[in-house]
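Hi L.,

You mentioned the student needs an example of a multi-chain input paired with its predicted structure. This one should do, with 365 residues in total across all chains.
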Amino acid sequence: MQDREILDAFKEPKQRELAFRELVVTYQERVYWHVRKMVIIHDDADDVTQEVFIKVYKNLDTFRESSQLFTWIYRIATNEAINHLKKKQRKHAQSLEDVQYELENHLSSGHHFTGDEIQLKLQKALLKLPEKQRLVFNMKYFDDLKYDQISEITGTSVGALKASYHLAVKKLEEYLKEN
Amino acid sequence: MNNDKRHINLEEDKHLKEIPFGVEDNYFKSLTENILNGAKAAESDVEFNLHLKQNKMQVPEGYFDSLSKTIEDKVLVSEENLKPLEVISINRKRNYRWVGIAASLLLLASIYFGISFNKEQDVLAEVSDEYLIEFLEDNTILNEEMMASITEIDMILDEIYAEETGDIALFVGDHPELDYDFEYYE
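Structure written out for the whole complex:
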């Protein structure tokens, strides 16, 4: 099913459930990995991914199709992932550094981590970047999104995104070189 | 891994592009079911059922047409029932005496307080500068303490406000550059 068909079917009460299942199956893995790269811990990524799709379900009727369905879902996922990190920070009265430290420890524990040492170092280095830079890097580097797509998702100009990505790459390479 | 400070080029080192996280087998199958169950459960959410916002209560036919007339009639009846207000004339003879007494008292009070104020200024002139400075410094500390407690209250209120207004508002506040059109929150 194409996006158009999913959206049309969702408007029909009888086909709604089927259409939504199709949407979930189509996008759940991309959403999960996008969220996972931000929140790192699998259980958190699981919760956030479910939240994302519940929001999609509740709001799909109001989707104005001014952007692609995928971009819209990605935008929700991005907001939910960042909100999750903020919430976590506030819930435990932690600073951003505390959260980074906790996530670093989780990475080091090797739980649900399949990469090699250099990949682990890259992930740890990523945690040292500001959230926005990390987000941009993830979308450009791992997800191979184009700048204009990232621009639509984050509402940031392409120029600013290029600068952000370039800065992120420079910092990461520096960190990997030093460590 | 060797520890030499070799240069790593992220763009060239393709294996770094692989996502190094794992999930259990069949995780995505169960995720689909969890999401669908969650969506089903969400259908009963009040916010999701916008039709619940519609007012289903009814009034007798033509009620609003006659409502304004009913209100007007009631207002007229109340006005008729009102007694005319008594106008008190200041020209009444007996009032002259009271006005005179009040004016005299006012004059005496202003003279007394005027003298007291001058006296107070005289007393202050006799206080040494050192004592005045000490007194003002103490008061400043007191004010700072008060300000600190007000700041604490402010912080608590801010926290409550942040909880109430939700995470999106907070997030957008922290990142104004992300303040774009949230279609799905409309």
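You could point out the following to them. The CA atoms of residues 112 and 154 of chain A lie 28 Å apart. The domain at 1-113 of chain A is CATH 1.10.1740.10 (Rna Polymerase Sigma Factor; Chain: A).

Best wishes,
N.
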